[in-house]
Amino acid sequence: MRMRKYYPVAVLLILLVAIALSASVVTSSANALPTFTQAQKGIGPCESCHGKDATHAKPSHTTLACTSCHLTNTATPPTPAACASCHGASAILASASHVSQGCGTTPGCHGAPEPITTAVSLKVAPTSIRLKKTVKATGAVTPAADLVGIKVVLKAEMKVGSAWKAAKTTTSVVSATGTYSWTYKPAKKGSYRMTASIVATTEHQGSKSPTKLFKVI
Does the residue 203 lie in any domain? Predict the structure, then answer.
């Protein structure tokens, strides 16, 4: 008679515990992702629409690796491209829930681009002038092609004691070449500083130039 082979009960228990722990670690890691409950770049968290852990609990999602949705790492939210790779961009945009939530018009979501990253430079010359003379502020913005016609905010401040007080604020329109300029005539002698900035909109991000110093003697 052939003898059946039996595994010790202890070995079987160890195997079962190991399997259970592995499943628990995978599930808890997925459900504990910080981006699932935290908003980023002005976009609401997934659970604000789908409910707590509802997205991770879906049968179609539980079988996926984290990298299937989080293309870079689990510290960043899934990109529209990651969702569309499984669900299809057209189906997502046409779904009633996404239409009602405005996802198709929210920057960073399906169908709407994220605001463009911008930069603004600034040069002030000369750095030392006599009273009643002028300094010229010049600079450029990037990407120039996307920012033509916007206004750059220029702010001049004068040092009074240990504090900086507003002296003059104006705006300059970005030209077709992506440049701007401003000629400023200080009213008093002293130390001055100037900055140039771009105000954020739904189309582009805000940015600020390095501070430039000059003197009026």
Answer: yes
Q: Is the dihedral of CA 7, 11, 13, 15 positive or negative?
A: negative
Helix or strand (DSSP H, E) at 94: helix 89-94
Residue that has been written with the tokens 């808890």 in this structure: 28
Residue 24 burial by CB count (10 A; 0-12/13-18/19+): exposed, middle or buried?
exposed
- Verify that 159 and 184 share a domain, yes or no: yes
Q: If you average pLDDT over residues 122-133, what whole number do you get?
A: 97
**Which residue range forms the structural domain that includes residue 130?**
119-216
The mean predicted confidence, pLDDT, of the chain is 77
Query: Residue 147 above 80 pLDDT?
Result: yes
Q: What tokens appear for 103 in the block?
A: 């996802």
Amino acid (one-letter) located at 106: T
Question: Rounded mean pLDDT of 71-87?
Answer: 71
